[in-house]
Design goal:
The protein has about 650 residues and is α+β, with helices and mostly antiparallel strands. Helices cover about 60% and strands about 10% of the residues. The chain has 26 helices and 12 strands. The longest helix has about 45 residues. The model has no long low-confidence stretch (mean pLDDT about 80).
């Protein structure tokens, strides 16, 4: 439902650019109103408005002023409400529902004064409450108005800028990123979700730890038989009791989720429906640049990277004679690995078509990343002061999310494998965490331990990731096409594909390459990230800029050829991929696409080769490839032009 009105709103803005200023004003106005601003999705709406500005559908300064005016007017109304009702504002039904946000807004205003009005403009849910607090505390209008005007204008500029830049660089994004942009956007969304989940879960438990402890004590008294076992964990005389109650609550929730989820999978005996949907989406996003990135990220969960950090932490604990911590650290890793491998051997779950043997349920890489980073967080978090204790858990969540997303992208696992691996890792970390916290109350200096673990892990990852990328990509290469075509039928009728191909060839690709080189074509080496970053180098002319790679059904170009055009800013490009069908004879089949490309400068930062509309005839040297040719035992048959 929200998507329908969201799309309709954007369509109306694009069709009525001048009247759209009123709508932009209304969006900013509602976002600034106390309480109402909590439910208004201003960020995505203003990003979309900025995109329309960048695409040329809206005037930029006009939209900026409308957004700033709306934000200023909304803040002014909130200020008036606070000034009119004063402290009695807290009793209004709108504000009684969110007393915590009102308190946070008051704390921010009392601490920062006029600067708090500017700062609050960029602080999420508190934003609509601070102007109301300023009015409630009778801040003089002559002090409030300039600060509010500056805050509204800067907020409008900051919130419109990302979409504005995106819209202005849309052609560049489409040329460079296409599927890569979607992959990176999905990765960012996964990281944001995990970050928020860890952060807000930690904050909730930190705020309710004493309450949980009190409830647990009441439960132990009401259930004396079972309570005597729980009482050993939650003795109120121990300073660790609150954290043990939190860990026990998390353990109960995580164990219940893992047991229920695993039982559901075992009863079905096959992947879930969303498993296949996610795998299909990930496969459709495969492209060469993202492939290399995800293969490198998958190395976070590799044995060399995790092993280096684990051994460094174990060595430091042993050197400092922290035998209790060292024993639990060793047990967390060793037993966690045994449990995961044992479950993988017992549970027979069909693998994705892209997964090699040995990659089953649950994901070993995801589970061990969760265990290693998660238990390390349990070891060191309590030694951090106050709110800094959440950082080790955030690092654990980010590391696990990166490994999980990378392996999903590469097709190593179903989504259910990844979820089960995360839950299993969390359960085991909580079991060991409770055991460790119950028996160990000694504090120790954590900075050397943190430096040893994260430092050795980072060094091992930097060494291992570049060396393992090609092997990882080979391990998860897309499967061969399912469709099989008779050789004679292909030669007579072609592939019968809806997609456009200018060249179809059967036989030795090196022979085709030799003929094209003789016709003036040159082979471009596969562009990696170093080559892609070269598009930012002003000293490179267009001829030195790489043509960015494209994938066909997950396969990168097997051959990318280019030739100078009539002008310095134009080239001809021929991309050749493995065909999306197989021949019955087993001979290799290739398809190619011919393009004219023009070098365009984007955002005054980078030069990109972008394809022109496909309305040009094939050059004579490509047309002469049609037919059969050979050198000795090497044969080549080619069809030229669409089917």
């Amino acid at each position: 439902m929200q998507s329908a009105w969201f799309d309709a709103t954007l369509a109306w803005i694009s069709a009525h650019p001048h009247a759209a200023g009123g709508l932009v004003f209304l969006i900013a106005f509602c976002d600034a109103l106390a309480v109402v601003g909590i439910v208004v999705p201003a960020l995505p709406l203003l990003f979309a408005v900025g995109t329309l500005i960048g695409l040329g559908h809206l005037d930029g300064p006009y939209a900026l002023l409308c957004a700033a005016a709306g934000a200023f007017a909304g803040d002014a109304l909130s200020y008036w409400i606070g000034h009119r009702w004063g402290p009695a504002m807290r009793e209004l039904w709108l504000f009684k529902r969110y007393p915590g946000l009102l308190d946070r807004g008051e704390q921010m205003f009392r601490r920062h004064g006029s600067k708090g009005i500017v700062t609050a403009r960029f602080v999420g849910a508190v934003r609509p409450f601070v102007p109301a607090v300023a009015g409630m505390l009778h801040m003089p209008l002559k002090r409030y108005a300039p600060a509010s005007a500056f805050a509204a204008l800067s907020w409008a500029a900051v919130f419109l800028a990302p979409g504005w830049i995106f819209g202005a660089s849309y052609d560049a994004v489409a040329a460079v990123a296409d599927k890569l942009a979607l992959v990176l956007l999905g990765l960012f969304a996964a990281l944001a979700l995990v970050w928020a989940l860890v952060l807000y879960t930690w904050r909730w438990f930190a705020a309710h730890a004493d309450n949980l402890l009190a409830r647990a004590l009441l439960w132990t008294r009401a259930h004396p038989r079972l309570g005597r076992y729980a009482a050993a964990l939650i003795d109120p005389r121990r300073p660790e009791s609150a954290s043990l109650a939190v860990l026990a609550t998390c353990l109960f929730a995580a164990a219940w989720l893992w047991a229920g989820f695993t039982a559901w999978l075992l009863v079905r005996g096959e992947p879930l429906l969303f498993d296949r949907d996610v795998q299909a989406v990930m496969f459709s996003l495969r492209n060469p640049l993202a492939d290399r990135t995800m293969a490198a990220l998958a190395a976070i969960g590799s044995a060399p990277a995790l092993g280096a950090g684990s051994l460094a932490a174990l060595a430091w604990l042993a050197w400092r004679k922290r035998w209790m911590a060292a024993a639990h650290w060793l047990a967390a890793i060793a037993v966690g690995l045994l449990i995961t491998v044992g479950l993988g051997a017992l549970v027979d779950m069909p693998r994705p078509s892209t997964a090699a043997a040995g990659f089953g349920f649950p994901s070993i890489a995801v589970t061990m990343t969760t265990v290693v980073f998660g238990f390390f967080a349990v070891l060191v978090a309590r030694e951090f002061p106050g709110r800094q204790r959440v950082w080790p858990y955030l690092v654990a969540g980010v590391a696990t999310a990166l490994v999980a997303f990378a392996r999903l992208y590469l097709g190593a696992h179903w989504l259910s494998d990844v979820i089960a691996g995360m839950l299993l890792g969390v359960v085991w970390v909580l079991v060991l965490g409770i055991a460790y916290r119950r028996h160990s109350t000694r504090s120790f200096l954590i900075r050397p331990l943190v430096a040893a673990f994260y430092g050795c892990f980072a060094l091992a990852l930097a060494w291992h990731a570049p060396r393992s990328t090609q092997a990882t990509l080979a391990q998860f290469e897309p499967p061969p096409p399912e469709r099989v075509l008779d050789d004679g039928q292909w030669w007579r009728q072609g592939l019968g594909e809806a997609r456009h191909f200018d060249l179809q060839a059967r036989g030795d690709l090196s022979l085709l390459e030799r003929r094209l080189r003789a016709a003036g074509w040159s082979v471009q080496a596969p562009a990696d990230w170093i080559a892609v970053l070269g598009v930012l180098d002003d000293s490179h002319g267009p001829a030195q800029q790489p043509v960015l790679p494209l994938a066909l059904d997950g396969h990168p170009e097997r051959l990318l050829l280019r030739r100078a055009g009539a002008r310095a800013d134009r080239i001809e490009v021929l991309r050749i991929w493995p065909a999306p069908v197989r021949l019955a004879s087993g001979m290799p089949l290739w398809v190619g696409r011919y393009e004219h490309m023009q070098a365009r400068r984007q955002l005054r930062l980078l030069t990109l080769w972008q394809p022109e509309p496909h309305d040009h005839a094939l050059p004579a040297d490509l047309r002469t490839l049609a037919g059969s040719s050979g050198e000795g035992e090497r044969l080549l048959q080619a069809r030229v032009g669409p089917d």
